[in-house]
Design goal:
The complex is a heterodimer of chains A (531) and B (367). Chain A is an alpha/beta fold and 531 residues long. Chain A folds into 2 domains: 235 residues, P-loop containing nucleotide triphosphate hydrolases (Rossmann fold); 189 residues, 3-Layer(aba) Sandwich (Rossmann fold). Chain A is 35% helix and 25% strand. Chain A contains 18 helices and 24 strands. In chain A, the strands form 6 sheets. A 6-stranded mixed sheet of chain A has the order 6-9-10-3-11-12. In chain A, a hairpin with a 2-residue loop joins strand 23 and strand 24. Chain B has a two-stranded antiparallel ribbon. Chain B folds into 2 domains: 80 residues, no CATH class; 258 residues, Orthogonal Bundle (ABC transporter involved in vitamin B12 uptake, BtuC). Helix content of chain B is 75%, strand content 1%. In chain B, helix 8 runs antiparallel to helix 13, helix 9 crosses helix 11 and helix 13 packs antiparallel against helix 14. The chains are: A alpha/beta (531), B mainly alpha (367).
Amino acid sequence: MDYVIEMLNITKEFPGIIANDNITLQLEKGEIHALLGENGAGKSTLMSVLFGMYQPEKGTIKVKGKEVQIKGPLDANDLGIGMVHQHFKLVHNFTVLQNIVLGIEDTKHGILRMEDARKKVVALSEKYSLLVDPDALISDITVGMQQRVEILKMLYRDNDILIFDEPTAVLTPQEIDELMQIMRDLKAEGKSILFITHKLNEIKAVADRCSVLRRGKYIGTVNVEDTDKEAMSEMMVGRKVNLTVDKGEAKPTDVVLEVENLTVKATREGHTKNLVNDVSFKVRKGEIVCIAGIDGNGQTELVHAITGLDSISDGKVILNGEDVSKKSIRYKNTHGMSHIPEDRHKHGLVLDYNLAYNLVLQQYFEKEFNNHGFIRNDKVNEYADLLIEQFDIRSGQGKETITRSMSGGNQQKAIVAREIKKNPDVMLAVQPTRGLDVGAIEYIHRQLVKQRDEGCAILLVSLELEEVMNLSDRILVIFEGSIVADLNPKEVTVQELGLYMAGAMQDKTHALQGTAHAKQDKQEEGAQDEK
Amino acid sequence: MKNKKQIDFSGALSSIFAILIGLLVGLIVLLLCNSKQAVPGFMMILTGSLTHGLKGIGQVFYYATPIILTGLSVGFAFKTGLFNIGASGQFIVGGFGAVFVGIMCKNLGGVHWIVALAASVVFGAVWGFVPGFLKAHFNVNEVIASIMMNYIGMYAVNWTVKGYKPLFNNLRNESNTVAVTAQIPKMGFDKIFPGSSVNGGFLIAIVVIILIYLLLNKTTFGYELKAVGFNKDASKYAGINEKKSIILSMTIAGAISGLAGGLLYLAGTGKHIEIVDTLASEGFSGISVALLGVCHPIGILFAGIFIAYLTAGGFYLQLFEFSTEIIDIIIAVIIYFSAFALIVKTMIAKTRQRKEIKKEQEGGKKA
């Protein structure tokens, strides 16, 4: 068999942890090879080794049969290896063309020459039907298009080994389908593709073979055709995983969180459009309401406005019947609102504090942990041990671990544990499973459903359609800052939802439905009063 | 707990490493200047402070007092994510507050010195508050704001002392001597270290060190300050008033530096506010002390004493026809290398981990 890349018996150690333990990965010419593994399984480390960012302690790398020493990304590029990073590396105020040639510009007497480059880019774009406009500014094109620019960048450099690092995380279902087609076309042209992911559906859709890593160890390589999803996820996690969420009917009762005509005006100069535009909805005890939408349609601003991280321009937030629009964050925190933030590093954790201190981030001032201004470290540690035990948070040194050194999944678990343990009335969970592996996703989903069943109101913001469909009892679709649809997950298909999210469909009856809901609520409230 | 101790240990090790390199460079400089006298000169740096026995040691503590506190001021701010380069201005303004009360309020009796010290704390606090306020509300970089406050402080003090008759001694172009009641009591130090200038101020500095240590590590207030220093956004998310924290942090840092000025100018050792257009060097020594003490209160205490020890020893260098500036070079090199402390720290951590892994592997084999 012809292998274009062989990484043989790679071992890479970091202080205290073996990130790659004797891993072998062989990429055949002209195949799509998936690299599957949980977070912290060692996928990124392995790729960093391939790109020369790290030097392995043991093992050899062969490219096209020849043993090579890769000392940096430039070496990798010379060997024809290119990568589409999870977070794109594009200059936003440059055009597509400028971004593509960046670093290998053609010059004559020190003056840029773009004509040849333009011809080549247009030709490549046509060949793979990427439909990219070379003169568009990056900041003006969609995320999906930006990804195609990244692909063009690799093709322009004549790379024939392409690595995609979790490429679908930011795409809509339609864009994902198109990307899959592009990948198939690339394969047909003889390119070899390494596809890093933890989404089993996508592996099933495009990959030929799949190598699985678990906790730094190589588990095995399988033919995708002969292996079902359950088997692959079992290889990845090491145990059987329930891929669908088990949940009973929602039994919603009282309204806990009410948002009325909430508007957030743009603060950046020159932007006049409202980031959140006249949004109203209610979340009741015992239901999971999901705000679905493509990234950047006002979800972040909406949540920040509700929690108080950013100020509200207009409208009201009502928590347990009390108008809390102008209350402090601490007031909301201590009056029944929990918030799993979108960005766990920016908002969720003080990364340089140890785990115990992070677990009391919103409670350290309460009587339990505070003795006349002195922090009761013994109680804090006790509480931390309890949560670590109960929520199975894994780390190197238990409660003493500096959270920066923990894996993403366990950091998220710590946040979820902290927020759940507060016994909130309403929980805002923003992309609670972003970047997590199947095992951790399953865990967090189960916790959310459990919270719901215990009578918590949950507002879930998610970009993952599967999560939206599986978890929610009601779906609100947000598009350009406005709620455009109020849907029942049982009555809508993923494709329809995708169209709503892309703004191609509008629920004309939504306004009416909103009032209908309000009426229904009133009736219910009345009924309860009678009881 | 085991891990904690190890971390502290490596911090101290890296500082010691920096000191050794600094001394080595000092020796080289001495050799270059005058190779015959170099070795005795070098020995003098190391032992000069001890030549007068207890008096010499007392002098070291006296020199150490203000720089321990300015060091603490810088280190404290640094622990809370702020760079207080304004210790110099806070120091001189605090000193002015103390001198003003020391000269003007003569009928306070036994509490005179306490009131004067309190004035130094308040004046310094105000000088720290301004950059903190600007940082919190207008996002003005505290480094720039506090540098400006340094100059405003220096010139304002010069101008006020010169312009207000009762404060000014125009024969010597400096402030008048404070009342005897405003001088810091000796608190028994004159008996332990006879003949030296050390006084109760050293004890006060140690008490402040302990207080700040407790504040940072044992209180919820310290928890908030450090949280804001590490991650402003997460602190806001957690409901901490991050603006208030920044302001308070700078205010406390200013208060400590102000106290340093108060303790120096109330020492009763003939130290006066001189009308010169230079920023108080104690403020900048504070940065050195904080760096060498890896911003840990206890580390700062020892770093302050050490630098004072070298400075005191350096005075005797003149006996060997060296200029005392060599001491400044040595201190500068030490600070330079303590900036490399991080590298040394990681080096130490790495070798330790390697050893541990080896041990584990061996243990595994045995098992």
